[in-house]
Amino acid sequence: MKERAILRKINIFSHLRDREVDKLLEVVEEKDFTKDSVILTQDDLGDTLFIIVRGKVKIVLLSEEGKEIILSTLREGDFFGEMSLLDGEPRSASVIALEDSSLLIIKREEFLKQIRKSPEIALRIMVEMSKRLRQADEKIGSLALLDVYGRVAQALLQLAKSEGEKTKKGVVIKKRPTHQEIANMVGISRETVSRVLSDFSKEGYITIKGKEIIIYTDLSQIEYSGHHF
Ligand code: CMP
Question: Cα–Cα distance between 98 and 121 in angstroms, integer?
């Protein structure tokens, strides 16, 4: 699978010339992870960058009692592990495969070499890190300021933005997260998520069919003004 085409699809490398891509391919390692395997553990030391070639991962914080909060989910083309690589501190979160995934792994020294050769890579990483900080800010705001309806609505909106498909019916999310996963994204119980989703369905905001969820209306109205049930 180590082909140019794979690296071409990765945003932070897509501007490189063929010769540069081939050089990069010589120094990356490809590794497969099965669903549910732990790729990185919070607080471990590490100095490698991971790039998702295939699959999906979740970035999580775990409590000692085994409770988890999902900070983000990342998919094909995304990278992670840049924080420890850049600041030398332990891993800020754990990363777990949500699907069978193939990753490219680059060591710190090799990655810094690439950045020196092509500073555009660093710019692209900064753009992505800004996006992530925005999302993290939204999440802090949501956890501190919104009620359970607002929090679930905001999680659905973020999902619609990142993987929704606009259709005549509404925005369709094909592989929706489970109620437990939504609960772990917004810091409330699975039972509460089920109640909120059922209320959203009854009010005609969404339809859930198997693994699919359709969002009909502008849920942001709920997000900003609290629920009206
Ligand atoms: P690092 O700290 O090396 O290891 C865990 C990785 O998870 C981290 O680098 C980032 O790549 C990623 N990560 C941590 N927090 C977030 C977040 N809020 N959103 C997206 N990715 C994150």
Answer: 27
